[in-house]
Structures are given as structure tokens and as C-alpha cells.
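Aim 2, interim progress: modelling of the shikimate-3-phosphate-bound target.
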Amino acid sequence: MREQIRPAASITGAIQLPGDKSISHRYAMLAAIAEGTTKLENYSTGADCQSTLACVRALGAVIDNRDGVISIQGRGLDGLREPADMLDAGNSGSTIRMLSGILAAQAFESRIGGDESLSRRPMQRILDPLRQMGACLDARDGRFPPLTIHGSQLHPIEYTLPVASAQVKSCVLLAGLYADGRTTVHEPVRTRDHTELALREFGADVEVLKRSITIIGRPHLQARTLRVPGDLSSAAFFLVAALIVPESNLTIHGVGLNPTRSTLLDFLVEMGADLKVLDVTSSGGELLGDVRIVKSPIRGGVLEKARTAALIDEIPVLAVLGAASEEGLIVRDASELRVKETDRIASIAENFRRMGLAIETREDGFEIPGRQKFHAAELDSFGDHRIAMAFSVAALIADGECVIEDAGAASVSFPEFFDTLHRAAGE
Ligand code: S3P
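Predicted structure of the complex, ligand included:
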């Protein structure tokens, strides 16, 4: 699918976003191994979270979607059944990495794989800790999907993450549900804590001491009724759009404000964004509220170390903001971008080149000068949802109409993205 984006006069109105992708995955997986029927409101409509639903359905959970509320009949900790075919995680790294923690402990063998992009993504990071727990797994060429998982009895471990990854942390904690005793993960930098919060919601015993998280094995997980907050990483595209398009004034309702994710808002404010958070409430241990933003001059800034890790999904659209800012954007310590759905440093750089924008790339980041002119161009998502959406935002301030090739990739996390964007742009 090709999408045409015209320059916008303003980004205005009030919008609501689909449920947070990270939280949706976790709720679906925990619902499948809980006792009773979980009901999930505002579950992510993105293809990635539908892949998780399809996987847990193939493992025996009965799923129903009525009026947008997803019901999942849990099978209890030991009730999953052997899938008939290979589980399909589609494009979703979260699905394969987190679900593998559960699959490793089952009394059956399973295989899990995904699309071409997923098949190139590194799995060593979960194979290592799972093997330490006694899991028996094989990967293509020793490190890529598909994975073959021979379920086995797991034992608890204490594990220090070599990479800052919430997916790996979650994989170990989910495997820890099945290990008798205390499984502890130490994080070098804090990563999103949705798994810890969700585990507690479903009744597991989780202890958090600074950056060490311990799960006590063999809990009775209980079904819950939960509402998924709007996805802050999807909001990022609209926040940046409102900051760079003249005359913008936008409200985003019910968006997730978990402190391990809201570094985005702090960073935007630090760079000069006129942004207000209103009506903060909590649901399932997660904070959410409304965000109001108006067009503001943005200074630019530097992203490095822990902040880079906290903003890793937002970097493509922050690159666009950087080029429109006064002083530009420097990103360091971001080698993880090379192993996302695409090599995001390369995808950003290629679209910058097409729009006539300057960027200097390094192995683990880039430097973008500010005050740049965005030229109309044929842009490409390269099959990556966040690249599709980031460059649709860039197109809003180009000097003519842009085309985004393979724009349908956006539906991996946000199928309603183009409708919402066109509406906010007054079309
Ligand atoms: C996610 C963690 C991050 C993030 C991804 C979702 C999660 O990945 O980039 O989009 O839901 O835990 P890593 O764990 O690889 O950092």
C-alpha cells in the first residue's frame, strides 16, 4: 500500500489511541495461563498483538472478541496444550521472546517463528538465560527464529541482563513462574516494567529492589478485568507532528504514562515543548491521562545512555523532530536500533537522504543538524511500522506531497494511524 501525505496546515482536535502494544502482549499471555476468564478493554488492534492472541489460541486458550472487549479463558499455569502447528509470531519480537519463556516450561514441544524481518532478529539474548534455567531450545543457525522448544522442568536463576531489554527481562520472569523458588533479574538500566505490574495484577508475587526484580515461582494466577491504556509510543508520532506543524493544538486522551515510558514527555519538555498532562488516573497498576500539546519552538538535544534505552522506540520520530529543531539531535548508545524490525539507523538515513536532509550516522547512533528544509520525496517504510509513521510525520512539513511506500507496515502497531493522521490534519 502507498500512502500520499500532503503538507498540513495544522494538527488539531482530540484523539484516542489503540491500547499499548507492550501491555497488551503481557495481559494476553498472562490471561492464557491464569485461572478464569480475563476481559481486556482497549486491547491493541496492532497486528503484533493479534499475533500474540493467535499464539495463545493455538496453545488452547479460548478467545472471544465482543464489542471490542477481548475475553480470554485461561487454562491455568499447567493447562496449555501442544500446538498443532508452528506458532506464528508474525513481525513481533515481543511475542517470540516473551512467549518462549512460557513455552520453555511446558510438558510438550513447540516451534515458534515469524516473518522475514523477525527471522533476522537476535534470539541469543533469550536462549542464554533460558538454558541456564534448564530449558532445551534450538534456533536456526544457533541464534535466529524459528525456535524449537522442548519443554522441560525449569529451575530458578539469578540473571544479570547483558543488554537493556524488557523483552529479555520478561522472558526470564515468565519462565520464573514455572521454576520452584525465586528467580531474580538484575537490570543494568531500568527498562519498561509492564511485566512486573501485570504479574502483580494477575496475583503473582513480585519483589522489586532498585533494579533487581524477583518472581516467586508457581503462583496461582487469577483472571482479571483490565483496560489497556493508550499507547504512548503511538502518541509520539502525534506529539511530534503537533510540535512541527504550524498552528497545532492537540489533545490525546487516555494515554499510558508509566514512568518507565514517559521519559518521552520529559525529553520533549526539556527541549521546549509546551505540553501538559491532565486528569491522571491509574488502571491495573498503570498510570494514564490526557496530554495536551501545542506547536512550540524546539531547541534540540542529546540522547545517550539510559535515556536512549528508554526512548528506543521513539527515536525514528525524534530524528524527524531533530531535523526540524533549532540545534538538531545527537543520538548515542543506540546500537539496538540496528536489530529492530529494520536496521533503523539505515532506514532513517535513507529516508533523510531522499528528503534532502543531512544526517551523519555512526554504528550506534547519528547526528542531525537543526533548521533543515524537508523536501517532498518518495519515502519507504522498508516494512517497518515505526519508519512508516515517522516519515509520514516528516511529510507533513515537506515542500510538496510525499508518498510512503509499503505504508501498510504501520498496522503492525497502529492500523488506524493514517485515518487518525488525516483527521487531525483536517482532511
Ligand atoms: C518492548 C521492549 C523493547 C521495545 C519493544 C517492546 C517490550 O524491546 O523496543 O518495542 O514490550 O518489552 P527490547 O526489549 O528489545 O529493548
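The longest helix spans residues 232-244. The chain has a mean pLDDT of 98.
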